[in-house]
Amino acid sequence: MRVTDKVAIVTGGGAGIGAALATALVEAGNSVLVADLDGAAADAVAARLGERCIAVGGDVADDAVIALMIERVEEAFGPLDIYIANAGTTAGMGLDSTDAAWDTALSVNVLAHVRAARVVIPRWIERGTHGYFLSTASAAGLLTQIGSATYSVSKHAAVGFAEWLSVTYGDKGIAVSCLCPMGVNTALLNSGFDSDAEGASVAASAVTGAGTVLEPEDVARIVLEAMETEKFLVLPHPEVLTFYSHKSADYDRWIAGMRRYRTSLETAARPGQDR
């Protein structure tokens, strides 16, 4: 797909990777609807990007909000071509995570993708158009997230759902990509250092200590390049593929190494220790 002169929806578009993706898409000649739970943030992005961008505020895991986004973007710009399920949450942490936290993590990080795909993919097939569905997961969806069970499980599920979509609809005119970055300089990552939740700073340190923390704009550029070739797995941090290869080659050895890494991070996070 040539990623220009298309109509796109970007969820979680009020900041971070989502805002960078919306910006890159508009700069490449596309029309975009940005959606975010923070409606004011979405409005600010749309105002900055001008007449080729509009905004919707709301919970993008809600079927009614998904329907509203599609209605608004098609009224403004025409038939939808690209859906980027980018909204994410770090709700919950370890075994003490409440059912409410698990519900939030699974709803935003997984079911929002499912509910959107349930609507847009049949529409693309019926219209005979070449649709594009991109899921933002995480390297945690291929590896794991030290410190957060909710994030690990929900991001693994997001990768699994994207894989299933590609296997099922990839030969029916539907392109699917799955974005799996490590550290990106966003509030989602940086808030981990300020959270009072037990293990939050360790979870954030596990990401920042594993490799370079990229800027959202760098990730957006890599995503658009990957979409041009309809590449499934989008890895802004190439080393993730090496880690994933080590994991699949010797699972027990990889787990042992992750335990050692977790222990070193926990030791560094204790009062009086250097961080």
From TrEMBL:
Keyword Transmembrane helix tagged: no
Listed Pfam families: adh_short
InterPro entries listed in its UniProt record: NAD(P)-bd_dom_sf, Sc_DH/Rdtase_CS, SDR_fam
Domain of life (superkingdom): Bacteria
Protein name: NAD(P)-dependent dehydrogenase (Short-subunit alcohol dehydrogenase family)
Cross-referenced Gene3D superfamilies: NAD(P)-binding Rossmann-like Domain (3.40.50.720)
Nucleus listed as a keyword: no
Similarity comment: Belongs to the short-chain dehydrogenases/reductases (SDR) family.
